[in-house]
C-alpha cells in the first residue's frame, strides 16, 4: 500500500506542491505583522477588551475546522452582507485561492500570536524603563529593544504557522473544493487520491509534507537552543 512511484511526480504533482507552499508562504507573511500587533496588545494591555481579543485569537483552536469553514462559506456567499460588499469590489473568495489565504490566516492566527505574546511577557519590565530613561520612544523601544529579544518566539511563530497552513485540511476542504492549479493543495490531494485508490500518489504528497514539516521543526529546535545558550543581551 505504501508504495512510491516516480511516475506520480508529474507536472500536476509539482503544481499542487507549489500551490501548497505558496499558500503557506503568503499566509505566514500576512500573519507576521498581525501576530506582532496582536501579541503586543495582549501582552501589554490589561483591559476587558484585551480579554475579548485574546479569546478571539484562541477561537480557531477551539472550534472544529468544519465549523470555521462553514462560517467562512457563509461569509463569502453572495447572499451575505460581507459577500455583497466583496461583489461590489469584484472580489470572489469562495472556492478561490484568495479565499484559502484569508481562511488560512485566520485559522493559523493562534500559532503566530501566542508565541509572540509569551515572549513579550517574559521580558523584564526594566528593559522598557531603561529605554524610556534614555529618551527612546515607544516605537523605538518596541522594535529595537523588545522584538530583538524574542527572536526564538518569532521563529517559532513563523515556522509553526507555516507548517500548520501546509497541512491544514478541515477548513481548506470546506471552502476550496478540489480545483487543480487553483485550490488543490497537498492535503486535499492526499484525501482525493486515497479516496480514488491512488495510494502511490497520495504517499508522494504525504512524504513531501512530512519532510518539509520535519525540516521546519529542526529549524525551530536549532534556533531555540542557540538563543537559550546566548541568553538575552
What does it look like?
The protein is mostly helical. The chain has a single domain (6-226), classed as MetI-like fold (Orthogonal Bundle), CATH 1.10.3720. 76% of the residues lie in helices and 0% in strands. The chain contains 12 helices and no strands. The chain has helices at 11-44, 48-62, 65-76, 81-88, 97-107, 109-122, 126-133, 138-146, 151-167, 170-176, 186-195, 199-230. Helix 1 packs across helix 9 (151-167), helix 7 crosses helix 8 (138-146) and helix 9 (151-167) runs antiparallel to helix 12 (199-230).
What are the main properties of this structure?
233 residues; mainly alpha; MetI-like fold; 12 helices; 76% helix
Set out the fold topology.
Elements: H1 11-44, H2 48-62, H3 65-76, H4 81-88, H5 97-107, H6 109-122, H7 126-133, H8 138-146, H9 151-167, H10 170-176, H11 186-195, H12 199-230
Helix pairs in contact: 1-5, 1-6, 1-9, 3-10, 5-10, 6-9, 7-8, 9-12, 11-12
Summarize the structure.
The chain has 233 residues and is mainly α. The chain has 12 helices and no strands. The chain has helices at 11-44, 48-62, 65-76, 81-88, 97-107, 109-122, 126-133, 138-146, 151-167, 170-176, 186-195, 199-230.
